[in-house]
Amino acid sequence: MAQTNLTKSADIQVAMRAVDFATRFASNWEHLREILGIMRPIRKEPGTKLTSKYAVVSTLATPPAEGEAVDYTKAEVKEKEYATLTLERYAKAVTIDAINDHGFDVACQLTDDAFLNELQQDVVDRWYTYLRGGTLTAAGATFQMALAKAQGIVRNKFKKMHRGITGVVGFCNILDVYDYLGAQNVNNVEQEFGLNYIKNFLGYTVLFLLSEDEIPKGTVIATPVENINLYYVAPNDADFQKAGLSYVTDGETNMIGVSIQPKYDTGESVTHALHGMELFSEYIDGIAVVDIGTESFTAVQTTTGKNPENEGWYEKDAANNYFRTTDTTPASGKTYYTRSVTRAA
């Protein structure tokens, strides 16, 4: 008769699955970090609030009369809360019947792969949604002009902020790229992490080719490498371990916790995953969103009871440059504008 509490081969196999899952998850993010050219993931405490920053300049002061002092124009950097880093729980279950019908490799291993990809994609999709809200907007008549303009305005923005840039990362719809390239043979499209990308394309460090669900056709997004960070909460930083909840981590970055447990009452093998990750761009006004086409602006006639920022309205500076407003209530005497884009044929 076997001794009680004996570690058996099935226990080791389950542990190996958990270790493999956690290690591959961390490895994939390491590859993406290298592609993006960003620094190592930044570990934060649970409950840390991520805030985006943007600069606000009030209406220029009236030029002084001869001999009078110059009035100051107020400029300030404001913050807007984006997300709170918390640990998020996910689970995937495989039944005994599925394992019996399809075998372990198909029922468990392939579904583990799919589960891992969905966890990764969820983090990336949230970042894409955030990027689409970038406040540096413009238009370019062609795909190439839109790429050039997007890169130019983010470089100009960071130069005015006196911040160095080592490279610019771009995001575009994959159909726009192939429309632009036409019949040309593309041999340098690479794939990693489920993403298609081209390195050193038209001045971009890397250009990601995304689906229409991720970025609309006719839109180009760009931001400097320095405006991309990966923040995370390590599962072993939380207090749940004191309650006997144990998760396997990769042992280095500890970006995800994994536990695989049997559920005998329903005959299931349950994979639990725990992570708190956010891809984040600190400067929302350091993200360019450029449309392929021509843009026009129309003055807003009725502002009463409106929130200009939420409406997506624009202001115009002394040099006739339009920019997204950050006003939450209409300012007396200020003209706001709506933006419309005529897409290129």
Main sheet attributes: strand count, strand direction, barrel closure: 8 strands, mixed
Structural category: alpha+beta
| Average pLDDT over all residues | 82
Overall 3D shape: globular
| Beta strand % | 25-35%
DSSP helix count? Answer: 6
Helix and strand element order: HEEEEHHEHEHEEEEEEEEHEEE
Helix content: 25-40%
Spatial extent as radius of gyration: 25 Å
Q: Give the CA-CA distance, first to last residue.
A: 78 Å
Overall number of strands: 17
**Sequence stretches where pLDDT stays below 50 over 5 or more residues:** 5-13
Describe this structure in words.
The protein has 345 residues and is α+β, with helices and mostly antiparallel strands. The chain has a domain at 10-59 and 77-129 and 231-280. The longest helix has 28 residues, at 9-36. It contains six helices and 17 strands. It starts with 8 loop residues before the first helix and ends with a strand. The strands form four sheets. Strands 5, 6, 7, 8, 9, 10, 14 and 17 form an eight-stranded mixed sheet that branches. Strands 1, 4, 11, 12 and 13 form a five-stranded mixed sheet that branches. The protein has a two-stranded antiparallel sheet with strand order 2-3. It has helices at 9-36, 96-102, 104-131, 143-160, 174-181, 308-311, and strands spanning 42-43, 49-57, 75-84, 88-95, 136-140, 168-173, 189-192, 195-201, 204-210, 219-224, 229-233, 256-263, 268-280, 288-299, 314-316, 322-324, 337-343. The protein is globular. Helix 1 (9-36) packs parallel to helix 3 and helix 2 (96-102) crosses helix 3.
